[in-house]
Amino acid sequence: MDLIRLKDLDETQDIKHTITDEQCVRHLKLNGRDLNFTIKLKKESIAFDFNYNFEIQNLVDFKARMSETSILELKQEAVQFMSDIYSLELEGDTE
């Protein structure tokens, strides 16, 4: 699966080994929000993990952040990112 390909993969082919799974972690700002984004590859399966992080100090901050941005909006943003970058669509998504 060539969705992501690390530069050292060709060099490691000379060593007798088997890669059982791969993981790529990226930390980025998406629309001004901090996002930890992980792609996990294992055999023929792939998993995406989108983890948004907000700077909060207390429950009042949490309430304010969650009222200005809905979880559904964050999901839609993540799915759009996956579609734009990797040309993938979410299967079985009914929102």
What overall geometry do the principal axes of the alpha carbons give? elongated
User: Could you give the count of β-strands?
Assistant: 3
Q: Largest beta sheet: what is the strand line-up?
A: 1-2-3
**Tally of structural domains:** 1
Q: Calculate the terminal CA-CA distance, rounded to whole Å.
A: 28 Å
| Order of H and E elements | HEEEHH
Overall structural class, as computed from helix and strand content, comes to: alpha+beta
Q: Could you estimate the helical fraction of the residues in percent?
A: 25-40%
Low-confidence stretches: none
- The amount of beta strand, in percent, is 25-35%
Radius of gyration: 17 Å
| Mean pLDDT reading | 82
Taking the sheet with the most strands, its summary is: 3 strands, antiparallel
Q: What is the count of helical runs?
A: 3
Describe the structure in your own words.
By secondary structure, the chain is of the alpha+beta class. It has one domain. Helix content is 32%, strand content 31%. It has helices spanning 9-12, 59-68, 71-86; strands at residues 21-30, 33-42, 45-53. A three-stranded antiparallel beta sheet has the order 1-2-3, covered by helices on one side. The radius of gyration is 17 Å and the shape is elongated.
